[in-house]
Amino acid sequence: MRRLAWTLIFFISAVSSSWAGGPGTHCTDHYGRVVAWVENNNQSEMAEAHYHASGAPFISYNKAAAGESGLSEDAQTFLYNRECGRLVLGHLVRPGESLDSFRNQVNQEDCWAANRFYYVGEVDKLKAVETELNELERTKWVHVAGPVRVLDLENTCYFKTPHWSN
Asked: Which residues have CB under 8 Å from 89's CB, separation 6+?
């Protein structure tokens, strides 16, 4: 009974710490492990994906950087999802070996985040986010993880309306 109580305490603390203060985006890495959200006010990016030395995935985020970016809540959600996509797709453990493969990975990460809007029917929000990020001043890109880029999600992501068979 005592072991069960300690196991429950450990489990509850582990789960609660992975959600503590995070932006509310549920995320798992490519191994299926829950990603912890860790506030880090010393980074310039709004969010950045990492692995601890122990191998545990986490995304560090900075609320102040999000405010300084001037981006809408939807654009911030897109960028949080993009960092989750980096972990889901395994790009931190298998980085691109050439410039072309790096650019391909950046596109895949953007598309992973875009899918979170597209497939729940929020195409208008996604288009607004794309426009907002494309119009972002270069000085504000310091708050966005990844390279400065122009998004062309419709042509890059190959969105497809699912067809369900009867």
From this structure: 30, 105, 108, 109, 112
Phi, psi of 160, rounded to the nearest 5 degrees: -140, 130
Relative orientation angle of helices 123-134 and 73-88, to the nearest 10 degrees: 90
pLDDT in tens, the chain (166 residues): 555 443 333 333 334 333 334 576 789 999 999 999 999 999 999 999 999 999 999 999 999 998 889 999 999 999 999 999 999 999 988 888 899 999 999 999 999 999 999 989 999 999 999 999 999 999 899 999 889 999 999 999 988 776 665 4
Please give the model's pTM, rounded to 2 decimal places. 0.81
Closest CA relative to residue 63, chosen from 147, 143, 145: 143
Look at the alpha carbons of 83, 86, 87, 89 in this order and tell me if their dihedral is positive or negative. positive
The count of other CB atoms within 10 Å of the CB of residue 149 is 14
CB 4 within 8 Å of CB 27: no
Please name which of 83, 159, 70, 85 lies closest in space to residue 123, comparing C-alpha atoms: 159
CA terminus-to-terminus distance, the chain = 50
User: Got the DSSP string for 24-44?
Assistant: S---B-TT-PBPEEEE-TT-S
